[in-house]
Amino acid sequence: MANISGKKRMRNALLACVGLFSLLAVRIGYIQFVQGEELQTLAYMQQTLDRMINPNRGTIYDRNGTVLAMSASVETVTINPTNISEGNKEKVAQSLSNIFELDYESVLKKVNKKTSIETIIKKVDKEKTDKLREWMNSTGITAGINIDEDTKRYYPYGSLASHIIGFTGSDNQGLDGIEAKYNEILSGTQGKIVRTSDASGSVIGTGEEEYIPAVDGDSLVLSIDANVQSIATKYLEEACIDNECTDGGVVIIMQPDTGDVLAMATYPEYDLNDPFTINSEEIKSSWDSLSQTDKNIQLQQMWRNKAITDTYEPGSTFKLITTSIALEEKIVTDIDKPGQFTCTGGIDIAGTYIKCWRYYRPHGAESLRDALMNSCNPIFIGLGQKVGVKKYYKYLEKFGLLNKTGIDLSGEAGSIFLAEEKVGPVELATLSFGQRFEVTPIQLITAVSAIANGGKLVTPRFVTATVDSETGEKTEIEPSIKNEVISEETASKVRDMMESVVAEGTGKNAKVEGYSIGGKTGTSEDGVNTNKYVTSFMGLSPADAPEIVILVVLYNPTGEGGHQGGAVAAPVAGNILSEVLPYLETEKQEEKEKVTVPNVVGMTVKEAKSELKKVELDIKINNQPENLNESEAIITEQIPNAGITQEKNGYIICEIK
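and the corresponding structure tokens:
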């Protein structure tokens, strides 16, 4: 019986051993074939400490080499939680939270994680990380704590050109503006540090780290001139504050031949070094009470570049387009033919009576030059009717007004026009003088640049060159010329009339002593029945061969100065040009001799002509009848008034009875 029991025990023990080894084999097989890849990855994560090295983001320069955006050296602190011993975890968490002013519980949570790497703080000044180094040296606790070089984006001029340049996020990626549009070029390629260690964090082998260097991003050269941008920004801010423009404003200055944008100012701007802080004191006071959704909406509104994202009715500045079409189609050939047109105060179009802005005292007989100087709506309505819908839309296409300009910034909006087949006589009438459709400021200034440069449509742009980060080689980018819109002859005539608008018409507040300025004012409603207005001025200089084109747009001016383009927007353009033209070394006009205007009120036209001839001035009669009796017609009003100085060989405008 004893032998039988012993054999039974041996058999049971053998079976137990076989079972145990079978289970072990199954477990090993499971680990090898089922969990093998996962465990291998975890082992690699624990033993191989990869730390990423951020490259220097490319520098952004203005056209003169002034730095607008650059990368400054900072440091990033990371930890390898599995390599920090249990006895040191609380000490490490306490020190990190104290030095970098972080929440202790949050840091401790990271220290206790079972991951290969955790970021404690990014882009911190070396002054702070030096304190960590001192602590590590004094305590001898170094395993699992890493301090690596990093870069931080810095904008030397703060808010200057904020809506153009844009900004980056904490990961060094572009989030807005040029930074976002050209992120792939600017960002470069990350490098890394690879070090192999055992489970305790001790270095395996020679202890050498494999260093894979980062490749810095390439740099960009912009068309922007920081000085011109500063001038535009200064006067735009003054105008928006003085005229109480509730919705801000825009100024664009372009070179018409190349499409280079020298300045694009949007008010109000924001601080590029602190782009997530709202720029409105009113909103800032209630910021903490806003929902995250409302905060995001306010930030998006602050970052919005109205020059390319917002549309508006251009008003009378659009008469430059109608004028160009009429001349190109030979509807008008002589821009100075007296009495070619007549303003009676309004015009009837398909049963709808549309008034001239000066309906209470009609302009009377006018040449095309007079009509543009007076900004006379009925004349341009008549021209539009003669052009016709089909041809008008053909020119809208040629001027680039039915498409986006293709400017190198994200978020560009398109224009809002009625479909061609839906345009009737009344819609064509309002289109002809710039109302009941919308364009963006960049679309309008691009279209008018075609008038300025002799008839060619160019693509507006900001980036003119790239600079290789490794070789320093600069690659120029050629301007993009799309098509010919109008002839040089037409463009020259329109520019000549634009000069008269500033010299003697509604744009005279844009005058700059010593320079020839051409322009056109505009006033339009901001929506239907909103009681809001948009006031604007489109200008160019020198008038005969323009080097720059300027557009000023002010949204809803509510100040005492009113909302008319000639009174509100034109002076802003004049102030800007008075500084920009000398800075660009634009050649001055030869100073013309001036004379004092005599008083001719109360004289007959014949007597007035004789008196004015003595000082080499001429006379122009407003509302001049076809059969004028110069010996009987009495002058009742004159512009300019007596005593004002006027350039010799000019003329004065008179009313008669």
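(Above: one complete record from the training split.) The two ends are 151 Å apart (CA to CA).
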